[in-house]
Amino acid sequence: MLLERILHVDDDEDIRTIVQIALETIGQFELRQCSNGMTAIAEAQVFVPQLLLLDVMMPEMSGQEVRSAIEEIPGMERVKTVYVTAKAEDDFAKELRAQGAVAVITKPFDPMTLADNLRSIWAEAV
Amino acid sequence: MLKQCVVSKSLAMLVGFLFVLMTGIAGASYFFAPGFADNPALQSFFTRYLAISAAAALLAVISIRLLWNAQFKRFEERQEKILQFQQDVMDRQVELLSSNGATCILDSSGKVVAASEGLFDMLGIPSTDLVGQTLEDVVPCFKQERLRKALADAHESGKFWSGEVSGYPTPDRGHVIAEMTVIPQIDKSGENHQVLLVLSDKTQDRISETNQFLGLMLEELQEEIYVYEAESLGIRYLNQSARERCGWSVDTARKHKISETIPHFNIDLFKKHVGPLLAKEQDSATIEIRSADDVVEVVTRKMTGLDGTKLFVSSLRDLSHRSEIEAAKMQTVSMVSHELRSPLASIKGSLSLLKSGSLGELSPSVSKVVEIADRNSERLLLIVNDILDLEKIRSGKMDFSTTPIGLGALLAEAIEANQPYADRHGVDLRLSDVPENATVAVNQDRIMQVLTNLLSNAIKFSDTGDTVLLGVENEGDGWRISVTDNGPGMHEQAIAEIGKPFNQHKPLDGKKREGTGLGLTIVKQILGYHGTKLAVESTIGAGSTFSFALKSSGAAGETVSLKKFSGAAGERPRTLHS
């Protein structure tokens, strides 16, 4: 199964713009973007993404809370999650993987290779 | 004064005698003058003249006598004062000499005329060596201006001086502290010709005072101090903080053992702690003990008591507060790092998209400034990463677990990782032959970080077409890994300053290189955790070699967590060629 639908959640508008270019323009994915957890949960029920690309530290709901909430939506239990975080500590990345993330990408990332990276991660995860 | 009085008196007598003689001669000349008997007026004048002259002579003698008496009385008073002064001097000398003082007498030129054996005991210098010398020649502290002035005042003005003299080292006793009294010596004429010095040893008194002061300080220390016997573990002394923790009085504490200071005292941990002290492997041992309530650091030293008993002195410091500060600091650094990395992600991402051309072709001038922005955002990111790494190492949060790994594979990976950077600089990156069986136990990520730092530095300082060699050679029970460049080399001072944070030495070729100034600081820290040190050899104008030793390891083994070593395995002395 190919990766086609990605839901990206990040409170930083600039990052959202870069990710949009990286995944829509360059990566040719079907992408939806949200600036907070609540709108993401609502969007997920309509969009039904294959992969969640989540920022970790957001003001209202953290990335982990968004993931937990979306996984509780019927039919979304097996959605894959990739975190994008500025917290570069090894321990933190391990902790996120232990919680069920398929990968952790550290900011700053290269937008030119982001799409290919996500495809590789998806191929390993499914 | 006495001489003046005698002269005055003799002169008075002579004047009186001459006056009477001249009066008699004048009277006789009148008496025998012709017609004297028949001239009543002349007789009357002569009689009055004689009476007045006799009265004047008598008055002169009496006045002079009175004057002489007054002068003599002043002389007597002065003599009495001198005698009293000399008596005082003698009393002072007797008092000082009876207090076991060391004495010597100096002549008017400041040279020692005589010295007592007590002075020899105090200074450790034979009294015969002192005689004929000035004190300045023999005891350097007498060159102090205040002592020179004291001696000069005693000689010139007859002034007493008393004060403390310290700091003159003796062969047997080290520094001596003494109270010195300078006593001018007055001869019969009342002049000062000699000076008596009396020194009283106050070293022990001062030591006692210092010990008393130190004892008080020890009592008031916030750190807990435990002094106990090494064999029986019986407590000799606890300071106030330690007694408060234990709830004991001074006397009660002496009835307990160190193992009774806390409930559930871990005797095995204690033995492990003091073991290296008993084996004389270390001078002091440090251990950090964490419990649910607090974090304490215990530092123990072995000492010998005054009665020869082997003692342990442990100081216990509460680190809970420090841990909180460290945690807060790390949290702040982590937060700042996060806050910097997020905008950096936007900047770098935007620049990367611009550079790629996916947003449209850029003119050459726009490409140039985009390249500048991209290069500097990369530099900023490296600084952020290095600061984070340093904080992680310092707070003990960096992973240093080791596993045995083939040296060949490790170095080949380092070459591969740094090849793009070398290509960009037109530098030839080479790896020397690595023995197939060479295995080392290291933390692969961290040693890779070390090699990347050293290789990127070597590349940076090389000219296009130069070669950077990653070498391996057998050394003792391990391997020495080296990175050699043909760059401009380094001065000795630049080598000495390697590892200081944000230190970037000025290259000898004057070319500016990019760098955070933290790379080699991190390298030294990582190598410290691997029990080794960075060695540097440099030849000005010909290049530098940075190297470190790693011990051989078996082919397989369990993962080991490293603690930072204070010593270094296989450290090579720093050498310079210029």
Automatic annotation (TrEMBL), chain A:
Annotated keywords: Phosphoprotein
Pfam families: Response_reg
Entry annotated with the keyword Phosphoprotein: yes
Gene3D superfamilies cross-referenced by the UniProt entry: 3.40.50.2300
Modified residues (4-aspartylphosphate): D55
Residue ranges of domain Response regulatory in the record: 5-122
Gene Ontology annotations of biological process type: phosphorelay signal transduction system
Signal sequence bounds: none
Presence of keyword Phosphoprotein: yes
Protein name in UniProt: Response regulator receiver domain-containing protein
Organism the protein comes from: Lutimaribacter saemankumensis
TrEMBL record, chain B:
MF terms (GO), sorted A to Z: histidine phosphotransfer kinase activity; phosphorelay sensor kinase activity
Top-level taxon in the UniProt lineage: Bacteria
One Gene Ontology cellular component annotation held by this UniProt entry: plasma membrane
Alphabetized UniProt keyword annotations: Kinase, Membrane, Phosphoprotein, Transferase, Transmembrane, Transmembrane helix
Keyword Acetylation: no
Domain PAS: 86-158
All residue ranges annotated as the Histidine kinase domain in the record: 335-554
Pfam family, one: PAS_4
Catalytic activity, as annotated: ATP + protein L-histidine = ADP + protein N-phospho-L-histidine
InterPro entries attached to this UniProt entry: HATPase_C_sf, HATPase_dom, His_kinase_dom, HisK_dim/P_dom, HisK_dim/P_sf, PAS, PAS-like_dom_sf, PAS_4
E.C. no: 2.7.13.3
TM ranges: 12-33, 45-68
Family annotation (PANTHER family): OSMOSENSING HISTIDINE PROTEIN KINASE SLN1, TWO-COMPONENT HISTIDINE PROTEIN KINASE
Name the record gives this protein: histidine kinase
